[in-house]
Amino acid sequence: MGHSEKCRDLDTFWDQSTSTCKECPRAAGEWFAIAVYPVLFDSIVLCFILLMCTNTGREITPNCGFDDLGGRHEVPWRECKKGTFNDGSSAHCKPCAQCPPGFIYAHQCTTTSDTKCEASGRGTGHPVTSGSFQIRTERGFTLKPHPATTPPPLYTEAAGAGIITALAFAIVITITLGVICACLIWRRKRGRRHAVLGFHRRSSHINSGFSPLSALDNDLRHILSPDILSSPLQTVLDNLDVLEELVILLDPENQGVKNTKHLASHCSFPATWITYIYSMKDSKSPLKAVLEGVNSKHPDWTVGHLAERLKLMERNDAIAVLSKLGECVMQA
Hints:
Elements: E1 12-15, E2 20-23, H1 28-40, H2 43-52, E3 58-60, E4 77-79, E5 84-85, E6 94-95, E7 103-107, E8 116-119, E9 132-137, E10 140-145, H3 157-208, H4 214-220, H5 226-229, H6 234-238, H7 240-250, H8 260-266, H9 271-279, H10 286-297, H11 303-312, H12 316-322, H13 325-331
Antiparallel strand pairs: 1-2, 3-4, 5-6, 7-8, 9-10
Helix pairs in contact: 1-2, 7-12, 11-12
InterPro entries: DEATH-like_dom_sf (IPR011029), IGFLR1 (IPR042355), TNFR/NGFR_Cys_rich_reg (IPR001368)
Keywords: Disulfide bond, Membrane, Transmembrane, Transmembrane helix
Organism: Gasterosteus aculeatus aculeatus
């Protein structure tokens, strides 16, 4: 569709100065030279401009982009579309030729040159227009490639994007699975290591027979007197003041501080029993239940046994409370 109502030929434009339709210049250099040549340039410069500003790779726009009043709707020329070319011999871009069977592509079509084909075994390239037919236009006949002879593209941008997306997705899935497998293996090894450590720790409690640990015993002698260490565990239960202070220190469940639950575990009580005594703490102190349970199962236990477990729990504050048993022991 053109921009001029007076000039039906799309390759012309309406010149208001002469009131006639003039043919559009075929190159940018012609527009420039026509406008400024009479003032600034001589003939040599004009020739240089025309050579440098040819219309190769371009085509003129309808009515050079002007309407009948001189208004511009678009630039006088535009680049050739993909699959077309203009080598400067025409005002419009022409479709690229396709090589016929038995020929190979010596030079692919660009916007400035047509396809060049050469026969197999020959070294001379020449342009070939294959499978073309004539179509009638307002200005005569022109050649157009036959759609049936155009080979289908082997690769498209959409297909390429799909392949890249699929590869990226596969890489992400592979990395994710690798990380998950590594985490599972690490957790499994860690679980086995903890199980082995737990087994050895439980075995040490059983095999020890609740006997005092000599390494800790030496440290405790600096805090508690030998008389207190050798006193029966029942002494703690009988001294209500000491027992109450120990209950206040050990029964609460404070984060980061070991309590009666840890003491019961060191005394080899099962987790279910520990949970039960804590569920009954409103009616009875869990610490008192632990001490009574140990005293019932092992009447030979002494205060030293309890002090050793408290030392393992790093509860020196509770050990200091046991030192108050000295008065009771001396009275006994």
